[in-house]
Amino acid sequence: TTMDYSTNDSKPTSEKKVVAVVGGGLVGALNACYFAKRGFQVEVFESREDIRQAKIVKGRSINLALSHRGRQALKQVGMEDTIVSKGIPMHSRMVHSLNGTQSPIPYGKKGQYILSVDRANLNKELLSAAETYPNTKLNFAHKLLDWSTETGAMTFVRAEGAKEEIQADLIVGCDGAFSAIRKQFLRQSRFNYSQTYIPHGYLELTMPPINGEFAMKPNYLHIWPRNTFMMIALPNLDKTFTCTLFMPFEEFEKVTTGDQVIKFFQKYFPDAIPLIGAEALKRDYFHLPAQAMVSVKCSPYHLGDKCVLMGDAAHAVVPFYGQGMNAGFEDCLVFNEIMDQLNEDFSAVLPEYTRVRVPDDHAIADLAMYNYVEMRAHVNSKWFLFRKYVDNFLHIIMPRTIIPLYTMVTFTRTRYHKAVKRWHWQDKVINQGLLFCAAVSVAGGSYLLVRYPPNMPNIPMEKLWPRLQALKSPF
Ligand code: FAD
Ligand code: EGU
Q1: Which of 64, 140, 245, 333 is the pocket-test mutation for ligand 1 (most atoms within 8 Å of CB)?
Q2: Which residues line ligand 2 (CB under 6 A)?
Q3: Where does a domain end: 291, 325, 343?
Q4: Tens digit of pLDDT for each residue in 411-437?
Q5: Which residues form the FAD-binding domain (predicted)?
Q6: Does residue 2 lie in a domain region?
Q7: For the whole model, what pTM was predicted?
């Protein structure tokens, strides 16, 4: 038999260091697989109970758009096929106009698509995958209270309120946008941090099947762009759609009765009323309050050789590019690549991870915020359709020169900051192209005028004057 010495799995587990992954959400669970695959002793600490046993999981979005970066990260731990097989491909957006017209706009070439995946299922599958490694232990109902930057000791509160102290060689903070691990970073000198709540909130509504079938075409990301208001719907395996309504909290506050909800939908999303159902809409709209959205940027992502942040803990982004989870998954993949390059030496890997990853995560945070501002400011359905047509058209006539930004972001692993740079460069090329076209038109037109002068009646000046006078006053 042949041995594969290229992997780092050769050391016996007992010699390997202990890695504590704090947070068993999407990124934490995936990270557990990555560290377990390398042979570390992995301990996952999650504040919630085991979601695989819990009945209903409250909290954020029900489904998410999974794209290339996320898939590549899943592939590396052998999870891509499992997840993709339970995802629903979305080949195009379906843009809903106010008058009910639906216009599809493909994401790319045939065979290029994103996937609608169920968040809870994805989380469960990743936790179970992590658990298949004998060197992984999942600790639920462990809420991190604080940790010591001196000793590295973490303090957890258990369900009954009892406290527990735990030590590890490396702490990986995957505890989301309101990270408790990050609190210690904030006390460090030269740590940069910014957090911005946007004025919009979001609300999720379920669109049930009609006669056992999807109420709208299933293989699309449905979108109702209405400037300040926006709705998005992603399909689920149970033939429902999850609609996410985005609008300013100020507007949410104005809608307080069932009748006002119907009035509001009649004005902005009339075609969705019969699909969601007027009665369900009146009820479900008030089921949960609108949720806030926050954008968090910070740097560095590491503290010495002891602790590193990944996923939303390092960079919460607003959901207007469908990249939060994808970027978080790519964090794990990039960290893993650096672990290969630098032989798992934490004192070298952690700073390198910060150096490589901060510019990219900051770039996607900025892009998502830019798209939020853009959509809110002037994106109605006509403008959205127009922009996407122009993007696709330019790409078709100059496939190598002009690549739409969302294509680089969604369907490639082009580093986010490189994608932004290229986007600016493409903008310059397009503008210069337009300027060139304008110049050619003017020059060509002038030439033709001189070469083929139009046959003008030759009127002497003294006869022209009275004519002009006549034009001015018809009386
Ligand atoms: P989380 O999913 O927040 O997980 C953090 C985990 O840590 C949780 O399980 C939590 O219980 C646990 N935890 C928290 N505090 C502690 C503590 N003190 N001790 C122990 N455990 C703790 N992304 C996409 O890629 N595509 C999309 O289409 C998309 N759509 C979105 C739509 C909306 C409306 C929103 C809000 C987000 C969307 N995202 C999307 C972003 C995506 O949800 C996040 O980026 C992703 O969930 C981040 O994963 P995470 O594991 O870093 O954080
Ligand atoms: C928001 C909420 C359409 C899931 C951005 C596109 C999103 C998703 C777009 C949510 C939009 C907006 C892109 C994808 C995706 C588009 C994208 C946004 C999934 C620029 C569950 N966005 N989202 N862009 O191009 O690249 O279709 O909640 F409306 S997937 Cl805001 Cl590709």
Answers
A1: 64
A2: 61, 63-65, 93, 114, 221, 223, 232, 234, 244, 319-322, 371, 375, 406, 409-410
A3: 291
A4: 999 999 999 999 998 878 777 777 888
A5: 19-333
A6: no
A7: 0.91
